[in-house]
Automatic annotation (TrEMBL):
The protein's name: Probable membrane transporter protein
InterPro entries: TM_pro_TauE-like (IPR002781), TSUP/Inactive_protease-like (IPR051598)
Keyword Metal-binding set for record: no
Keyword annotations from UniProtKB, A to Z: Cell membrane, Membrane, Transmembrane, Transmembrane helix
């Protein structure tokens, strides 16, 4: 079933795109991640131009985060004050990201920049996840109890910032500048890479801001929901790289895939799932690194008009 993508300016098998969306949806439900950081690389491997892949993937992340926010909100798992600050930072970040995206596109380096960002981020995150999950697997097999985690505190750099606010739901008394800057960083990545940023935002909220674990995921999804919406609109207005046909096919697959993934997650051990996800992330990073080191079949890029 061939489908023409008007912005990407090529024909693709629609079923393959739906299956790609379903695969990332399964991973989303199975591992508890947004899946955006896997959607873009998989589309690039299939032949979608990196600019169009990154811009269109944000719509899928938006759709997945809405239902998550609703679920966490019902149980009081969203710090709206903290989320509001990170959203403001994220919106500012998407503006900066749009300027950077247009600059890199104008000098013909946007495809390379996207690939390099994915190699660095996925390689780093995959390595850290593999180390942590393998330690948990070994502890589980040997029958040793995992050491009790110390009470989380925010990073010393966060404590040194001025103008402190009380974030009651998160149990914090810190400067709003810290979550604002964090939101800006995630907004820039969202604009450049088509990711929700949750795979960076969640650990940063835990180990840098020192937030309560009970509100981290819900607050992260709250930020992702709004920032990806703004990122999609920013891409549509500035880079004009959002392919609505591609986005619709991805959403169709990811909705059904997420349901299947959530059912499978109930039958597997969490540490094993994290290790498998780490392996998948590292494999994708290595594949993208290989792609940077070889001569492409077609030495040109598609620049949306």
């Amino acid at each position: 079933m061939d489908v023409y993508l008007p912005i990407a300016n090529l024909s693709v098998n629609g079923l393959v795109i739906v299956l790609l969306g379903a695969l990332t949806g399964v991973l989303s439900g199975l591992f508890g991640v947004g899946g955006g950081f896997l959607t873009t690389p998989l589309m690039i491997f299939y032949g979608i131009p990196p600019t169009v892949a990154a811009a269109s993937a944000t719509t899928q992340v938006t759709g997945a985060s809405v239902s998550g926010v609703i679920a966490h909100s019902r149980r009081g798992g969203v710090d709206y004050q903290m989320g509001g600050v990170t959203v403001v930072g994220g919106i500012l970040g998407t503006g900066l990201g749009a300027l950077l995206f247009n600059f890199l596109e104008s000098v013909g380096q946007i495809d390379t920049a996207i690939n390099i960002l994915y190699v660095v981020l996925l390689g780093t995150i995959g390595t850290l996840m593999a180390k942590e999950s393998w330690g948990a697997i070994k502890a589980s097999r040997s029958g040793e109890g995992r050491p009790r985690a110390a009470k989380r505190r925010h990073h010393p750099l966060v404590a040194s910032l001025p103008l402190r606010w009380r974030f009651y739901r998160s149990g914090l008394y810190i400067s709003p500048l810290a979550p604002l800057l964090l939101g800006m960083f995630v907004g820039i990545l969202t604009m450049l890479m088509g990711v929700g940023g949750g795979f960076i935002l969640v650990p940063a909220m835990l180990y840098i801001l020192g937030m309560s674990a009970g509100v981290v995921v819900g607050t992260s999804l709250f930020n992702v929901m709004f920032v990806t919406m703004v990122s999609t609109m920013m891409h549509a207005l500035t880079t004009k790289a959002v392919d609505i046909v591609l986005a619709a096919l991805l959403l169709l697959g990811s909705v059904s895939g997420a349901q299947l993934g959530s059912m499978l997650a109930q039958k597997a051990k969490p540490e094993s799932l994290r290790f498998i996800l780490a392996a998948i992330v590292l494999l994708i990073a290595l594949r993208m690194l290989y792609g940077l080191s070889v001569r492409p079949d077609e030495i040109f890029t598609v620049i949306p008009l």
